[in-house]
Amino acid sequence: MKRVAFKMYLKPGFSEEYRKRHAEIWPELKALLSQNGVEDYSIFWDKETNVLFAVQKNHGEQSSQEIGTNPIVQRWWDFMADIMEVNDDNSPVSIELEELFHMD
């Protein structure tokens, strides 16, 4: 199992909408993530910078950010594009973070 961490960017003023959309995450997206080995997935928000910090455990080879060819993921990206900084394909601007320390 590997741990993956990355940051994304929330547009100002959309924290409650982001929280609402994730509270109602689509069952098919949740199932897809699980099928691809993504588990124990959390997203934290830095209120001062609007940076979203995500961390997840992966049993598979791909993180949630690497399954973007799937139509479910592409629909989710489109759904979230109005409240996040995104690339031309509506994927979230996402920067993988290097792990410097871990303690079990």
UniProtKB/TrEMBL annotation:
Keyword Isomerase set for record: yes
Record SUPFAM superfamilies: Dimeric alpha+beta barrel
Key words, A-Z: Carbohydrate metabolism, Cytoplasm, Isomerase, Rhamnose metabolism
GO molecular function annotations of the record: L-rhamnose mutarotase activity
Biological process per Gene Ontology, one example term: rhamnose catabolic process
GO cellular component terms listed in the entry, alphabetical order: cytoplasm
UniProt enzyme class: isomerase
Record carries keyword Isomerase: yes
EC number: 5.1.3.32
Record-linked Pfam families: rhaM
Domain of life, source organism: Bacteria
InterPro entries (alphabetical): Dimeric_a/b-barrel (IPR011008), L-rhamnose_mutarotase (IPR013448), Rham/fucose_mutarotase (IPR008000)
PANTHER family, alphabetized: L-RHAMNOSE MUTAROTASE (PTHR34389)
Protein name per UniProt: L-rhamnose mutarotase
Organism: Petrimonas mucosa
Primary gene name: rhaM
